[in-house]
């Protein structure tokens, strides 16, 4: 029996967060999973000078970004020389059209996909379905959420919101697998189902973790072997990636790889690390006959032009900021209603979707700073959240689509009045006395702000008055004591 399709949107963030907080199963699933991931990460870095490694990772990413246009041209030239066809896509729509055209040109009806968040960002599966092309996710977590007609709730572990019983039900209802709590049995069943699809697929679509400009090498990090199957079994391989994933040379990869695996899953190395540099050569027995690389911009060039927001592009998509975020771990990934949830989503999605749709995401943070502290490439996430908040009320540089959407004349007037009062002591004292006398008239409901809070009332007396009263009281007691003596 098919599950009802759940639709989550960033515009409905408040309602979705409310629903998630009232769902003990979601909270328990995320709490358990995130506690485990935080612990694994901590252990994985125990024998390392983490700060030195983070500094190295940040400098590698910054160096690559400082030369991004040159490196992209170098990557294109090198890939083409290696026999990889390179395509440029301005946005997700164009990227989908490119992938669909390659499929159609080759008469493809069936696509197998390795894990790719950029393909999620592009909504590639829906686009291919419209063209009559069937796309199946082969990452186990992605396979499960696809069966369940959901989207990933985490960028590294797409099905982290599901527990064993829920997965058993999904597999039973959608694939006929006998109900079981045996994880190995479910994995074996999924492997058998996917194996057939790998062998029959016309095209494999994958993501890219690092694209090396020096050699034209596409690096793919994974644990299940599905990435290797996707990129070697079908006759055509299409890799899709954001333009920011380029690095300068091969020696840049090991530090980023070390940071990525430890930060993401607490592993020292992943089970598979794939390096793809060309299609199958004449003397080789396997591999695709054609390899395509689709470089997707989708708002990244705009981010690149702002020297503060540029830091967003350092991201290596490890998910650590999500695992450590007190908001994400309580409401889960679907609540955000965006391809990238959690702190990375809050700083990236406003650029991809505009602040009109995502204005509540940068404020879905207590600014505790945990995300910035664990980010392996030292992205100043809290600073970027503050910057986006400023943009949303029209106080930034106007470099984000939808800037100023939250600007409210009432709020501006209120803050300007507050500022004036706070800088005029006599007026402040007068206002404090009046507010203290009229405190009984203060409203107890202030819209959404008091949904989870008690409205504050003006104090009966100001701090200055209280200090004066206390000093008088002290003098009086002292006088009494002297009289008694
Ligand atoms: S922002 Fe940092 S911690 Fe978050 S996914 Fe990107 S690299 Fe990882």
From TrEMBL:
The protein's name in its UniProt record: Iron-sulfur cluster-binding protein
GO MF annotation list: 4 iron, 4 sulfur cluster binding; metal ion binding
Superkingdom field: Bacteria
Single GO biological process annotation from the record: lactate metabolic process
InterPro entries: 4Fe4S_Fe-S-bd (IPR017896), 4Fe4S_Fe_S_CS (IPR017900), FTHF_cligase-like_sf (IPR024185), Helical_ferredxn (IPR009051), LUD_dom (IPR003741), LutB/LldF (IPR004452), LutB_C (IPR024569), NagB/RpiA_transferase-like (IPR037171)
PANTHER family, per database record: LACTATE UTILIZATION PROTEIN B
Location of the 4Fe-4S ferredoxin-type domain: 306-335
NCBIfam families according to UniProt: LutB/LldF family L-lactate oxidation iron-sulfur protein
SUPFAM superfamilies: alpha-helical ferredoxin, NagB/RpiA/CoA transferase-like
Phylogenetic lineage: Bacteria, Pseudomonadati, Pseudomonadota, Gammaproteobacteria, Oceanospirillales
Keywords annotated in UniProt: 4Fe-4S, Electron transport, Iron, Iron-sulfur, Metal-binding, Repeat, Transport
């Amino acid at each position: 029996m098919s599950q009802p399709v759940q639709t989550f949107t960033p515009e409905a963030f408040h309602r979705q967060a409310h629903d998630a907080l009232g769902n003990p199963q979601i909270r328990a699933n995320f709490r358990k999973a995130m506690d485990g991931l935080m612990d694994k990460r901590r252990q994985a870095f125990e024998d390392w000078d983490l700060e030195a490694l983070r500094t190295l990772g940040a400098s590698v990413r910054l160096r690559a970004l400082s030369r991004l246009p040159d490196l992209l041209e170098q990557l294109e030239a090198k890939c083409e020389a290696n026999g990889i066809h390179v395509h440029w896509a301005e946005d997700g729509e164009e990227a989908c059209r490119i992938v669909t055209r390659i499929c159609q040109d080759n008469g493809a009806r069936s696509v197998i996909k390795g894990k790719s968040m950029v393909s999620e960002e592009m909504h590639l599966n829906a686009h291919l379905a419209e063209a009559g092309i069937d796309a199946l996710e082969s990452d186990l977590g992605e396979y499960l959420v696809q069966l369940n007609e959901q989207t990933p709730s985490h960028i590294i572990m797409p099905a982290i919101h599901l527990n064993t019983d829920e997965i058993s039900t999904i597999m039973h209802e959608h694939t006929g697998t006998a109900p079981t709590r045996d994880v190995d049995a479910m994995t074996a069943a999924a492997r058998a189902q996917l194996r057939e699809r790998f062998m029959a697929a016309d095209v494999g679509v994958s993501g890219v973790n690092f694209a090396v400009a020096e050699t034209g090498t596409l690096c793919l990090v994974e644990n299940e072997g599905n990435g290797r199957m996707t990129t070697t079994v079908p006759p055509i391989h299409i890799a899709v990636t954001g333009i920011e994933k380029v690095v300068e040379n091969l020696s840049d990869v090991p530090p980023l790889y070390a940071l990525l695996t430890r930060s993401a899953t607490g592993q020292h190395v992943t089970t598979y690390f794939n390096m793809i540099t060309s299609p199958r050569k004449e003397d080789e027995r396997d591999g695709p006959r054609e390899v395509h690389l689709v470089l997707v911009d989708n708002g990244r060039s705009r981010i690149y032009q702002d020297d503060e927001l540029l830091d967003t592009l350092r991201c290596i998509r490890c998910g650590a900021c999500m695992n450590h975020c007190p908001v994400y771990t309580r409401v889960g990934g679907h609540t955000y209603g965006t391809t990238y949830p959690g702190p990375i989503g809050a700083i990236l999605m406003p650029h991809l979707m505009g602040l009109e749709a995502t204005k509540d995401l940068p404020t879905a943070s207590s600014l505790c700073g945990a995300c910035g502290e664990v980010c392996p490439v030292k992205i100043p996430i809290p600073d970027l959240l503050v910057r986006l908040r400023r943009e949303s009320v029209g106080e930034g540089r106007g470099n984000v689509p939808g800037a100023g959407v939250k600007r409210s004349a009432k709020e501006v007037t209120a803050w300007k009045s507050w500022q004036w009062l706070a800088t005029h002591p006599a007026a402040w004292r007068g206002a404090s006395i009046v507010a203290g006398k009229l405190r009984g008239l203060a409203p107890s409901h202030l819209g959404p702000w008091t949904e989870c809070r008690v409205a504050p009332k003006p104090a009966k007396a100001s701090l200055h008055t209280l200090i004066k009263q206390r000093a008088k009281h002290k003098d009086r007691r002292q006088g009494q004591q002297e009289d008694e003596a």
